[in-house]
Amino acid sequence: VMAYDSSGRHSPPSNSVTVEMPMPEAAPTRTPEERPMPLDPSGPLDESGHLDAFARDHLPPRELWPVMEYGTVPELDYPRHLNAAVELLDRMVEKGHGARPCLRTDKEVWTYADLLERANRIANVLVRDLGLVPGNRVLLRAANTPMLVACWFAVLKAGGIAVATMPLLRARELSQILSKVEVKFSICNSILKAELENSYERVGRPIRTILFNTDASDGLEAHMRRQPASFENAQTSHDDVALIAFTSGTTGVAKGSMHFHRDILAVCDTFPPYVLKPRADDIFLGSPPLAFTFGLGGLVLFPMRVGASTLLVEKPSPDALLEAVARHRATILFTAPTAYRTMADHAGKHDLKSLRECVSAGETLPLPVFESFRRATGIRIIDGIGSTELLHIFISAAREAIRPGATGKPVPGYRAEVVDDDGNPVPPDTVGRLAVRGPTGCRYLDNLEQQQKYVRNGWNLTGDAYRRDADGYYWYQARTDDMIISSGYNISGPEVEAALLDHPKVLECAVVGSPDTGRGEIVKAFVVLRPGAVPSDALVQDIQDFAKAEIAPYKYPRTIEFVRDLPRTETGKVQRFKLRELERERAKQKAEH
After folding, report:
1. What's the CA dihedral at 330, 334, 337, 342 to 10 degrees?
2. pLDDT digits (tens, 9 = 90+) for 340-383
3. What are phi and psi of 244, to 5 degrees?
4. Burial class of 507 by CB neighbour count within 10 A (0 to 12, 13 to 18, 19+)
5. Which of 36, 298, 507, 555 lies in the 20 to 30 Å Cα band around 187?
6. Rounded Cα–Cα distance for residues 561 and 583 (Å)
């Protein structure tokens, strides 16, 4: 019973409020009474509010965690009893901002009070109808819609652990997540139920599932109508697991990353206020799924931390994003470099004057994409590197601090180093491994082997090769497994890609090392041509000559293969490992014959 005790500081919202409300402050501050003593990141975990101990039982050993740093910026001082959903939603309504727009679509607008009411009703469904207890894992399956956001908040308010999944995942992939996380319940959009139901056969057990977007008597909407609009929030600890996010699979099998309630607030109180600088009147828009932490932060957490709103688009193609900016006057955009490249070509057809900030992450932002978008819109894209393991962006720069081509500097609250294979810092302008630490960090779910690879000497090793210049800016070189060693030269695949993208007939490309008996590896480019361009030997030669004029000749792609598209994850990241595997298999077959 104690797990469901409410703080008693909020009451059911009223949807009849129509008065204009004042702008909320950027981020709340805490009184000394609310934070009686500083948190000790190296100390033991506080008493859990979870009755189901699965999450804590499957955390990696404490000695394998990265060093967690909370005292670097004042915003990171949180109370010991903390529920991230309550802080982001209930508190905003308590402060009188319930009538402000929160979630927008082409068809409707939900206020903060609307979202709170729906999240409360769903939380009651989870607890009263399904029997959820704090610590249970709840799988969420839907495209980016207001109902998905309401379900996410409901799970956390009830003390559950949200496990959001990409809409395009198939039964095989879903079954792996269901088994690994030992999911207790699923909430799914009715149009996506088939693959989920097929996954249950693979798991070998039924999972209590409730569907929404349906008129059925046993659907979520029908259950919600029978529940009250108020809910007694679970009293979770700041270091209780709130969500398990799965990596997008650019290097193979996805891994589950476990994040606490305080981690959710930490990413809200670092990159947004210190780099992005959002305002309460901003309208956020973007393409990443909410199951991708880039999307969760950019489209839900960050706007709600300042009382702003988000426009959710279920099928956010580049053209749809451009149209949405013009139609709804969106001001902040989150999407991937490939989308920005396409949008630059069509930006002139749309009124984009409302846009003031654009954020790119998921993959490195090639300089040609940055420049073409700037020429088309006048906007300098904010590049950033983040990871599922650290939840969101930890190196970035904005506005006058941007150095085109560089990722930026560590976000306040985080520290970074470039280290050698032994973990020792390297001199400026030396390529090495990126190491990061801060208020968030890697805690893989039941995966000691990968935990020991990702965390070394207290640092998160992201798998990226970087160099840091004398001014402290970080310059991306490649994924550490994308560095190509050819005839003794270290060649950065992304550097070659950036050069090829300047060719007028190249739309997209991916560069990998292809096995070669003489050189060890040679540089190979997989190229997607622009519409109207025709593959030919002459075009191969033209692209190669173009590359030689742009970068050192030893870096040019010695072979080019024209392809219709590149293998990608659902979040848009190129799966270069699949191209490397393809080249290794081809080399093996060639050797055998």
Report:
1. -30
2. 989 999 999 999 999 999 999 977 888 989 999 999 999 999 99
3. -120, 115
4. middle
5. 298
6. 11
